[in-house]
């Protein structure tokens, strides 16, 4: 299949206009039309319905457009990765979940950088689900996530174990509550698709409790915002012990034991199944895993 014709088709759909797509692609309109016709001839299917209002995908065109989106993305990733390999300065493209990326990981990256000053390190902090998707899209090569997705195209290596603790402010939080009492207290949860929320939901489902049974007052995608809310006495939340060690030490927030509920989990290094780490990527992975706690 001619990728140039495929790119022309893709851009025509995105622009919803042959004239606009031709201008973007630096082609003449007749030249672009000829490429579209050649692609349709090559595939043996009509892909576009042309009208004065623009272009519309046929059912066959919708299938081809979805594949074009993937193929052209892969082509761009190949070109980018080859360019990175040809650069004098090695690069690390890392994605991390927030509970590690906002707290423990920057310290480890700093230490690694001191040992390998020649490496250019880029870190993107998102949710675990987004880290996995970014791996699939080839925008990162190393992921650090909070739960194992158990996906066929992703492989994982355990870094360190942790625990989710229910915590409240230090003034009026109880020492222990039952599962029934858990349903009544004001809860602040992480956003959908976050690793922490997934772990909480999974643990409660095993106890026959749905998130809809809880008194969730709001959802936040910022761990610092959640901690601020707890300190202000606005509610309780499940947070990884790793990120609240200082607050626990200072007794500014207080753990609340929930009867018959513990949420242990691991942090993982994640990568694409068929991807082979470069020299410096493997050195970074080994560096992270070799630390007993995984992070400094």
Automatic annotation (TrEMBL):
PROSITE patterns according to UniProt: HTH_LYSR
Q: Which family does it belong to?
A: Belongs to the LysR transcriptional regulatory family.
Q: Name one Pfam family in it.
A: LysR_substrate
Organism per entry: Crassaminicella indica
The name of this protein is: LysR family transcriptional regulator
Q: Which InterPro entries match?
A: LysR_HTH_N, LysR_subst-bd
Q: Which PANTHER family match?
A: HTH-TYPE TRANSCRIPTIONAL REGULATOR (PTHR30126), HTH-TYPE TRANSCRIPTIONAL REGULATOR CITR (PTHR30126:SF64)
Keyword field = DNA-binding, Transcription, Transcription regulation
Q: Which residues form the HTH lysR-type domain?
A: 1-58
Q: Does the keyword DNA-binding apply?
A: yes
């Amino acid at each position: 299949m001619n990728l140039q014709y495929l790119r022309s088709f893709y851009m025509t759909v995105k622009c919803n206009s042959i004239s606009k797509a031709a201008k973007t692609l630096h082609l003449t309109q007749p030249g672009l039309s000829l490429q579209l016709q050649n692609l349709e001839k090559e595939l043996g299917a009509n892909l576009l319905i042309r009208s004065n209002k623009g272009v519309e995908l046929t059912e066959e065109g919708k299938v081809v457009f979805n594949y074009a989106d993937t193929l052209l993305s892969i082509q761009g990733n190949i070109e980018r990765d080859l360019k990175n390999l040809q650069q004098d300065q090695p690069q690390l493209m890392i994605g991390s979940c927030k509970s590690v990326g906002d707290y423990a990981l920057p310290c480890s990256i700093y230490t690694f950088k001191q040992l390998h000053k020649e490496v250019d390190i880029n870190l993107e902090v998102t949710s675990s689900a987004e880290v996995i998707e970014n791996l699939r899209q080839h925008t990162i090569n190393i992921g650090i996530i909070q739960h194992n997705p158990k996906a066929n195209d992703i492989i994982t290596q355990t870094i360190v174990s942790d625990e989710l603790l229910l915590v409240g402010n230090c003034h009026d939080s109880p020492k222990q509550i039952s599962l029934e009492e858990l349903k009544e207290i004001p809860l602040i949860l992480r956003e959908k698709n976050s690793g922490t929320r997934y772990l909480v939901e999974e643990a409660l489902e095993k106890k026959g409790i749905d998130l809809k049974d809880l008194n969730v007052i709001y959802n936040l995608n910022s761990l610092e915002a959640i901690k601020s809310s707890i300190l202000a006495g606005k509610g309780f939340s499940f947070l990884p012990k790793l990120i609240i060690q200082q607050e626990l030490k200072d007794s500014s927030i207080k753990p609340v034991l929930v009867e018959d509920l513990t949420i242990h989990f691991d942090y993982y290094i994640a990568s694409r199944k068929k991807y082979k780490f470069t020299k410096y990527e493997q050195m970074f992975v080994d560096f992270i895993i070799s630390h007993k706690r995984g992070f400094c």
